[in-house]
Specification:
single chain, 372 residues, alpha+beta, Nucleotidyltransferase, domain 5, three-stranded antiparallel sheet
């Protein structure tokens, strides 16, 4: 039996111990090379001149040698970490921690590792997710693709009754117990019924994550690319708009038998599997790669972040899409790739000055793009 990639030496080509052995100067040179393509030349963010500018070693900065600019800048000037307070070693260490965990890492755990406040760790992770969204490839998919939708957020709380297996029995038992009673405890129980007030408020936070996954031509390799779409419900209008924009006409599109996908045969070779009977039909039609993505996102929701809110659901959904697409990249490939994206991303539009009031005002519905 072949060894799993995550257990192979190819995957373990870059470790935390190697990162910790790097000096501060080596870390700065690495970041400079990934950003400017040189470790001995820099591009001044003020005048845009590439040159070996005057080095200010005491502050880990450079001063532009071209007059009248004379601007001081560092390797993180004009990046998502512009004006950072954390040491660069902590930033690259947190980036390594971010890529190691298959289902993500909570800000509560990261802040304990870095010895910083929770909000510092949370904001750092949010900036990494923004970078991931900015560099996600959004070109149309073709060939064999799979599409599905899953509900996330707004999880309903069940009534506090043990031993009952269906809603009718629970409702009857609670109704019998609280009939004529007006205590606050009984009011609270009633709120957690399927139609209770508290659950109705939770339901308003529920969203549908639609996923489109392009498969490798070779069997057994899974999906090569993932695109995410956020909708208020799994409806035909959103599904058709998503598929028509991001799937090349004539491609093979596999889905389940949801009513949202009934019109796909007009533009694609639409093949369906009936999930109430089977996961894959006799012809090999399935949407297992879409379900694989949902499995990772669900583990992240329940086991790591303990809930998603509509405002930032697209950030977490795209993070898991990136993790799925880079699952066969080695540690060094993922680390260098994400660090290079960070160094070239420019200022953070969504989270720069977050605690000074510069915040996203509305949730992102549809496909997240850098200009959203």
């Amino acid at each position: 039996m072949a060894q799993h990639f995550l257990l192979s030496a190819k995957c373990r080509d870059f470790s935390r111990s190697e990162l910790n052995q790097m000096s501060d100067e080596e870390i700065i040179k690495l970041m400079a090379k990934l950003r400017w393509g040189h470790d001995d030349k820099q591009v001044c963010p003020g005048c845009g001149v590439l040159d070996s500018h005057y080095e200010r070693k005491a502050r880990s900065q450079w001063r532009c040698k071209h007059k009248p600019c004379g601007r001081d800048f560092s390797v993180t000037s004009g990046t998502p970490f512009h004006g950072h307070k954390l040491p660069l070693r902590d930033i690259v260490s947190s980036l390594y921690t971010f890529i190691v965990h298959a289902s993500g890492i909570s800000a509560a755990m990261l802040c304990r590792e870095l010895g910083c406040q929770w909000k510092t760790a949370w904001l750092l992770q949010c900036k990494l997710r923004e970078v991931i969204i900015k560099y996600r490839p959004l070109g149309p998919v073709s060939g064999v693709t799979q599409m599905d939708g899953g509900h996330f957020g707004g999880k309903r709380r069940s009534a506090n009754k043990h031993g009952y297996r269906n809603k009718e029995t629970i409702n009857a038992a609670i109704a019998q117990k609280v009939e004529g009673a007006r205590s606050m405890r009984n009011k609270r129980r009633m709120q957690f019924l399927p139609g209770g007030k508290a659950n109705l408020l939770r339901k308003k936070k529920r969203r549908v994550v639609m996923v489109l996954r392009e498969l490798y031509p070779e069997k057994g390799r899974g999906a090569s690319r993932t695109i995410i779409y956020i909708a208020n419900s799994e409806n035909e209008a959103d599904a058709v708009a998503f598929a028509r924009e991001y799937v090349v006409p004539g491609s093979t599109l596999m889905t389940d038998e949801s009513g949202a996908f009934t019109q796909f045969s007009r533009w694609f070779d639409h093949q369906t599997v009936q999930h109430s009977l089977e996961w894959q039909n006799d012809k090999g039609v399935n949407d297992n790669q879409a379900e694989s993505y949902f499995s990772r996102l669900r583990r992240s929701e329940y086991g790591v972040y303990h809930g998603f809110r509509p405002m930032y659901l697209t950030d977490y959904a795209n993070e898991m899409a990136w993790r799925e697409d880079t699952r066969r990249d080695s540690m060094k490939e993922k680390f260098m790739g994400l660090l290079q994206s960070v160094m070239k991303a420019g200022f953070s539009r969504w989270f720069g000055g977050y605690y000074q009031g510069n915040r996203r005002q509305t949730e992102i519905v549809g496909v997240a793009r850098p200009q959203n």
